[in-house]
Amino acid sequence: MKERLASIREKALAQIKESDSLEKLNDIKVAFLGKKGELTEVLKGMKDVSADERPMVGQMVNDTRQAIEAVFEIAKNEMAKKKREFQMKNEVIDVTLPAKKNNVGHRHPNAIALEEVQRIFIGMGYEVVEGPEVEYDYYNFEALNIPANHPAKDEQDTFYISENIVLRTQTSPVQVREMEKGKLPIRMIAPGRVFRADEVDATHSPSFHQVEGLVIDKNITFADLKGTLAEFAKELFGPETKVKFRPHHFPFTEPSAEMDVTCFKCGGKGCRMCKGEGWIEILGCGMVHPRVLEMSKIDPDEYTGFAFGVGLERIALLKYEIDDMRLLYENDVRFLRQF
Known about the structure:
Elements: H1 2-18, H2 22-33, H3 38-44, H4 54-90, H5 109-123, E1 127-128, E2 134-136, H6 137-140, E3 165-167, H7 172-180, E4 186-195, E5 207-217, H8 222-237, E6 243-250, E7 253-262, E8 279-288, H9 290-295, E9 304-311, H10 312-319, H11 333-336
Parallel strand pairs: 1-4
Antiparallel strand pairs: 2-3, 4-5, 5-9, 6-7, 7-8, 8-9
Helix pairs in contact: 1-2, 1-4, 2-4, 5-10
GO molecular function, one term: catalytic activity, acting on a protein
Pfam family, one: tRNA-synt_2d
EC number: 6.1.1.20
């Protein structure tokens, strides 16, 4: 028994000395001092030792345990100390280095302009409605009184995915989908991304944003359209803003008009912003064509309405005096931080 205990002691001390990590040390402790360890197995054999020898053997087992535990604790403390020193060396903080700047994001000019437009029309009782960007030809053209031979359907202006599916060229399809629901009256705006096959330059992009509005109710007149858009212009550009309507042609409205606003930079006197004219074209509008109402199953003899559409980028360019539309898409933080 004495020789066995001496062998266990020498074996344990040798393994502790050779170990190079705290994990291995713990494994050694379990192997020799654990519930199923070698020293525990010796204690289980005490029943075979005579009563006279048990005290002596018990003392020898305790001495062996204490010797192993003592060496184990010394090795454990030394390894923990070295590990801590290594961490302190590698995780040291250089207080002379400049602090890391916490970069906070900023709203895009388009987002700021859209929030302003939505605030104005929601305040007038309109709801914001969205629709798909990939649209059927029917909703993008035919239901808006644009026949198959209309120039707007030429492939040089429209991105065709298939014969009957296009990337929408306006957000007007959202209006058609809303009219088809038959829930009247309607007071809505439809903001969203649209696509046209335009060359990229200071004022054009193949992908841009529109905000279109629609009102359908009984006894709606052009006077309601003028009053609504005049109020919109005053809220957006200032209370002194005046509006002017010029006759125009749109297939889906009749009569139709382009709306100008007095230059908010010079108050209508003429400047670089308005090219000396005192007026700036801002949007297109008109009374909803009776044919458009009929195709959406709305009786044009009982209901009338008006519609309008404005380019969101145009509002942002004018309101923040940006001279190149491409700046809105280049993601230059130096530019975006100005707004």
